Amino acid sequence: MRRLVIILLLLFSKNAIAMDWDYAMEYLEKHPIIIVDQNEKTCLAHNIYFEARNESYEGMLAVATVTTNRVNSKKYPDTYCEVVWEQRVSPRTGRPVPQFSWTLDGKSDKPREIEYYRIAERIAEEVLRYGKRSDIIDHDVLNYHAHYVEPFWAERMRLVAQIDTHLFYSH
After folding, report:
1. Which one has a higher pLDDT value, 152 or 50?
2. Cβ-based neighbours of 82, under 8 Å, separated by 6 or more
3. pLDDT tens digits, 32-50
4. What is the dihedral of CA 115, 138, 88, 163, to 10 degrees?
5. Cα separations (Å) of 136 from 43, 79, 129, 169?
6. 3-class secondary-structure state, position 131
7. Which phi and psi angles does 98 have, rounded to 5°?
8. Buried b (16+ CB within 10 A) or exposed e, 14-31
9. Handedness of CA 105, 107, 113, 114 (dihedral sign)
10. Distance between CA 171 and CA 161 in Å, rounded?
11. CB within 8 A of 20, min separation 6: which ones?
12. Measured between alpha carbons, how far is 150 from 90 in angstroms, rounded to an integer?
């Protein structure tokens, strides 16, 4: 893939004749081309939107950062879509339990407030293309919940931050 990009850069550059291979490699090292998987972007944007659309930019970015932390954790699947849509079976009830409640709430998964969804898409793009992260949320923060619920797992974890209406935890 990298060679294809370099070749295209050489072929379509205004200075293609003057450009050489070393210059192209040096240019790409300084200006990396990152291709964002649109399906992954959509999954992350949906999660940001449905989990934190009424939050501040930092609150939305914190949700994105926790989602990214899960993708990077050995405890969770390896892609954004798999992390967002993951369900585990409850040992107490034997029923599927979503990692993010909006994925199994029976409501439409189509965003209705387009201006908030556009913000969620922009944050997802920043995360996937540039590695944008919340400065408040460390790499070991894998869980959060809204302040008005009391999940059973929260008492076993260390509260590390509250951003807007969400409480964030590490082990």
Report:
1. 50
2. 76
3. 667 789 999 999 999 999 9
4. -50
5. 23, 23, 20, 12
6. coil
7. -75, 155
8. eeeeebeeeebeeeeeee
9. positive
10. 13
11. none
12. 16
Q: Which pLDDT band, with edges at 50, 70 and 90, does 123 fall under?
A: very high
Contact 21, 83 (CB under 8 A): no
State pTM to two decimals. 0.81
How far is it, in rounded angstroms, from Cα 166 to Cα 148?
9
Tell me what pLDDT residue 14 has.
53
Name the pairing type of β-strands 87-89 and 141-146.
unpaired
The CA-atom distances, in angstroms, between 128 and each of 62, 105, 145 are 14, 27, 23
Residue 102 · residue 109 · CB < 8 Å: yes
Output DSSP code: residue 27.
H
In which residue are the tokens 């369900």 written? 87
pLDDT in tens, 48-60: 999 999 999 999 9
Residue 132: both structure tokens together: 């944008």
Say how far apart CA 53 and CA 48 lie, in whole Å. Answer: 7
Q: Tell me if 26 sits within 8 A of 12, measured CB to CB.
A: no
Whether pLDDT at 97 is above 80: yes
